[in-house]
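This section describes the prediction task in plain terms. A model, or a person checking by hand, is given the sequence of a single protein chain and must write out its three-dimensional structure as a string of tokens. No templates, partner chains or ligands are provided. The sample shown here is typical of the held-out split.
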Amino acid sequence: MEIEEKLLELNAAALTPWSIVDGKLSNEFTFSDFIHAFGFMSSVALCAEKLNHHPEWSNAYHKVHVSLVTHDVGGITGKDFELAYAIEAILKQ
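The expected answer:
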């Protein structure tokens, strides 16, 4: 129940709704071109390194798919939501 509540709170602030897919907090972002997608990934990488929590992600041209899960726990934790909120802040810059 707690994860669903946190997901609702996150989505209230999100530009693009997040969902739970295969036990991971997931989202896909579309940018105007590859350069903007890669710039976004670079910004997230710096933030993820500071948080010591790294996403599973992929990029195809102007799309970036992000999945967040805490591997050592085997599920979604507060760390994943913390990084999701940081990603949202990056998107709003």
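For orientation: The longest strand covers residues 24-30.
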